[in-house]
Structures are given as structure tokens and as C-alpha cells.
Design brief:
Blueprint lengths: L6 H28 L6 H45 L14 H36 L3 E6 L4 E4 L1 H10 L18 H13 L3 E7 L2 E11 L4 E10 L1 H36 L6 H32 L8 E4 H18 L3 E4 L7 E5 L1 H17 L6 E9 L6 E8 L35 H11 L3 E7 L3 E9 L14
Parallel strand pairs: 7-9
Antiparallel strand pairs: 1-2, 1-5, 3-4, 4-5, 6-8, 9-10, 10-12, 11-12
Helix pairs in contact: 1-2, 2-3, 6-7, 7-10, 8-9, 9-10
Length: about 475
């Protein structure tokens, strides 16, 4: 780089120019007075005053030159740096020269451009991360080392708001953990202390949550924790149902098998002394085998229904005829047990456009059988049907109400589950041969018709099952797959 293009060169050339001007001025205006004997000193004094004024003007001009070439560009770069610091990354400075100031301005512009590109890429990454977090069904919550929430997605925010309604504080809660919800505190402390990822399951209210805690590692410490929470209530419930189902099936089959085995061994050992005793043992074996057969049949039916392999024959169904068949089926048994059985009057409007009459009869038969088994002598059972209006169209409402022992309120939400028994002390009636699957089958059949079933009960006052079936034929038929 040539010296006259640098700031130092420009200053040097300027000073040389000023010196040359001063010397020239002295040579032109003062030399002719030097040989004088100072006869007129006033003129000499005036001459120096004029020279001083000229020097002052020249130095002032030099100062303004430096202000324009050096100070003003630096001020522009300072203002541009302030604007960039405030977020205006498109700011650029004008390049007014090719010296060091110009090169500094050019470098500043390049730095601003690269910074703008970097910030834009960071914003894209942040937006991408934000979109990923928003689209996640799991709750993500990030805490700093003091337990303060620093980042969360909408699901996590909703979870924090839900859990904030519960008071988790206790005397042993450190102040740094006060912001962390109670179910997460123990895992938060362990993860923050150990610096290792950990997985736990917690029960909060009526739900089960799987929590993965991951530490946010800094250079020499853990600066926070990220918690990913997944609602596994349904998986936990299904797993529990599977275990309970296996246990219940084993229990239900073990009892008749034990009896069949015991009575058959008695026959083999000739314990029965008379033909009547042998006939009694054979009858017990026969009854228990029938009971196992009904259990296996109900299990197969229920499995087919839940797998979507239920075959229904949809056609118009006269509800009046359906009620008449069910009423006749149980009228004699109710009279024998001194139970008053009533039914609603016939109504021409009680007609389903599409339904499986045999399956609906199976539903009512199961509900009536349960009502008879749990209704004492002298009480009553009613079988009613009516057409009701609804926002989504008219429907037929079927009710089976008894005056039996009733179902505990805490058991009502679970009575349609397999093998669930509201009366834990109730012994199975070997004459009726219940399998504990009836209400589960009933619910599946009603839902296959596009309807709903509900139960209302008060202990000691009776139970009412209410079925609603849409009249319009808008239900999907369940067809067996080929080769089933």
C-alpha cells in the first residue's frame, strides 16, 4: 500500500504542505523586510499577526480535514454497531476511502453480513425446534439449576397449569425446588446431582406418567434439566387389564376343572356306593363342563367383537316384538320367584331401520338375567321402550330397571369390564352359570349397533340399565374377513 494512501501518509503530506506554505509566505512577504533596521516595527508586528491568522486558518482547515476523513467515519461505524446491537442486522456503513478507515468499514460490513446470516440461521433453527416441540404429543419442560422453568411446549405448559392446582409444598422442600412440580422433584434432584439421564413413572391424580430426565451439561457443572413426560395411563390400564384378564380366566377355569377332576377321581376310585351317588357325581361333572363351555364361548365371542370380526345381520327390527319375546322368556321364572315383571305398552313408532334382532335379544336377555338374579322376592322388574328425540336424530331408548340390591357408586364405571364383580363377596350361582363376561359382551353389541349403554344405581334401591339405539340406518356392518 502506497504511503500517500494511508492515514499517516495523508497527515504527513498535509503537514509538509503547511510547512511549505509557511516557508513560502515567509520568503515572499518577510525576506524583503529582514535587511531593514526595523525602522517601522509596527509593520513587522502586523506581518506576524497576518502570518498567525493564516496559520490558524490552515490548522483549522487541517482539523476539519481530519474530522471528515477519520472522526466522522468512526462515528458512523459506532452508530452502525449500536443499530446492529439493537437487532438491525441489515445496517451497513458507507466506504468513503480506500485507506485503513475504508478497509475497517469494509470489514465491518462483512462482519455485519456474516452476523446477519448467522442470526438468520439461528432463528430458522429456533423456529424449527419450536415447531417440533409444538407438534410433540409429549410434554417437554426445561428447568434451570434453580428449578425455574425456562422452556416448555404447549402440552408441557398445560400440564404445569393442571398440576399447579395441587399444593405440593411440604416442610422438607428446598427453596430451589419450589418451582418444580411435586411429582418431578425427587427425579429433578437426583438428575441434577448425578448428571445422568434417568427414567421414572409417577402417579398423579388419576393418571400415570412416564418421565425421562436429561441433564443440561455445562463446561464444569449441570446447568439444568430437561424433562419429557408421556401420559401412559391408557397403556398402564391396558397392561393391568391384560394381567387381570389372565388371572381371572385362570381363576374361572380352575374352579370347574378342579371339580371335574375331583369328581372324576371319585368315580374312578369307586367312592360312590350307589347308582344315585354316581349319577349325582356325573351330573356335577356335566354341569361344570357346560359351565366351562359357556366361559370359552363367551371369551371367543368377546375376542371376536373386540377384534372387529363380529358378524351382524342388519334388517328392520320391531322393538315391540323384541320386548314381547324377552318378556315371555322370563315371565314364568319371575312368577316362580314372586317377582313382579312389567313391560311398556306397544308403540307403532318403535321400529329400528337396521339392527340385528337376535343380538339385541341377547343383550336384553343378559340384562334381564342379571336383574332376576339380584332382585329379591316381592320386588319388581320393568322392561320399557320409548322413542326419544335427539340433536342427531331420533333414537329408541330401552330400559331394564330392577329393585335389587344395587351397585356401589364407586363400582359403576367398571361394571362393563371383563370379569369385574361389583359385589366382591357374591358367590357364583352354579345354577345360572354366569361367566362374568355378560356386560362386556352387551356393551360391545350395543356399540356395534351405533348405540350407547349406561347404568344408574343406588345401593338398596335397585339398578337401571339404559340403552339408546339410533333409528336411522347409519351403522357400519362388521363383516368377517375372508378365510376367517
Amino acid at each position: 500500500m502506497a504511503i500517500w494512501r494511508s492515514i499517516v501518509g495523508k497527515m504527513w503530506l498535509t503537514i509538509i504542505g503547511l510547512v511549505a506554505i509557511v516557508i513560502t509566505t515567509l520568503g515572499l512577504f518577510l525576506l524583503k523586510y529582514i535587511d531593514l533596521t526595523f525602522a517601522d516595527p509596527v509593520k513587522i508586528k502586523h506581518l506576524f499577526i497576518y502570518a498567525g491568522i493564516i496559520g490558524f486558518l490552515l490548522t483549522t482547515f487541517f482539523a476539519f480535514f481530519l474530522l471528515t476523513k477519520i472522526t466522522q467515519p468512526l462515528r458512523e461505524m459506532k452508530d452502525a454497531a449500536n443499530r446492529i446491537g439493537q437487532g438491525d442486522y441489515s445496517t451497513r456503513v458507507a466506504i468513503r476511502s480506500s485507506d485503513e478507515i475504508g478497509e475497517l468499514a469494509n470489514t465491518f460490513n462483512q462482519m455485519a453480513s456474516e452476523l446477519h446470516t448467522l442470526i438468520r440461521d439461528l432463528q430458522h433453527e429456533r423456529d424449527h425446534l419450536s415447531s417440533v416441540l409444538r407438534s410433540m404429543t409429549d410434554s417437554v419442560i426445561s428447568f434451570d439449576a434453580e428449578g425455574v422453568v425456562i422452556l416448555t411446549n404447549p402440552q408441557g405448559q398445560h400440564l404445569l397449569e393442571d398440576w399447579s392446582s395441587v399444593d405440593w409444598t411440604d416442610e422438607d422442600t428446598p427453596e430451589m425446588d419450589a418451582h418444580v412440580p411435586g411429582p418431578l422433584r425427587e427425579a429433578f434432584r437426583i438428575c441434577l446431582k448425578s448428571g445422568k439421564e434417568m427414567t421414572v413413572k409417577v402417579h398423579v391424580k388419576s393418571g400415570v406418567w412416564s418421565i425421562v430426565m436429561t441433564p443440561l451439561a455445562a463446561t464444569d457443572s449441570v446447568r439444568g434439566v430437561v424433562a419429557v413426560l408421556r401420559d401412559v395411563t391408557e397403556e398402564f390400564r391396558v397392561d393391568k387389564m391384560r394381567k387381570d384378564f389372565v388371572a381371572n380366566v385362570s381363576h374361572e377355569i380352575r374352579t370347574p376343572l378342579s371339580m371335574v377332576q375331583g369328581y372324576s377321581e371319585a368315580l374312578l376310585d369307586d367312592i360312590a356306593a350307589s347308582p344315585e351317588e354316581r349319577r349325582e357325581l356325573v351330573q356335577v361333572i356335566h354341569d361344570e363342563s357346560l359351565r366351562m363351555g359357556r366361559l370359552v364361548k363367551d371369551l371367543l365371542d368377546l375376542a371376536r367383537m373386540e377384534a372387529g370380526y363380529l358378524e351382524l345381520t342388519f334388517q328392520p327390527v320391531d322393538i315391540n316384538g323384541l320386548l314381547s319375546r324377552v318378556y315371555r322368556k322370563f315371565a314364568a321364572l319371575a312368577k316362580e320367584r314372586n317377582i313382579k315383571l312389567t313391560r311398556s305398552e306397544e308403540d307403532p313408532a318403535l321400529l329400528l331401520e337396521a339392527g340385528d334382532g337376535d343380538r339385541l335379544e341377547q343383550v336384553l336377555t343378559n340384562l334381564m338375567d342379571n336383574a332376576l338374579r339380584h332382585t329379591p322376592s316381592g320386588a319388581s322388574i320393568s322392561l320399557d321402550a320409548a322413542r326419544v328425540e335427539g340433536a342427531k336424530g331420533d333414537s329408541i331408548e330401552l330400559k331394564v330397571a330392577d329393585e335389587g340390591q344395587g351397585i356401589p357408586r364407586e363400582d359403576l364405571p367398571y361394571i362393563f369390564e371383563r370379569f369385574y364383580k361389583a359385589d366382591k363377596a357374591r358367590k357364583r350361582d352354579t345354577n345360572t352359570g354366569g361367566t362374568g363376561l355378560g356386560l362386556a359382551i352387551v356393551k360391545n353389541l350395543i356399540e356395534a349397533h351405533g348405540g350407547t349403554i349406561q347404568a344408574a344405581s343406588e345401593q338398596g334401591e335397585g339398578t337401571t340399565f339404559t340403552i339408546k339405539l339410533p333409528i336411522a340406518a347409519n351403522r357400519k356392518m362388521h363383516i368377517k374377513p375372508p378365510g376367517y
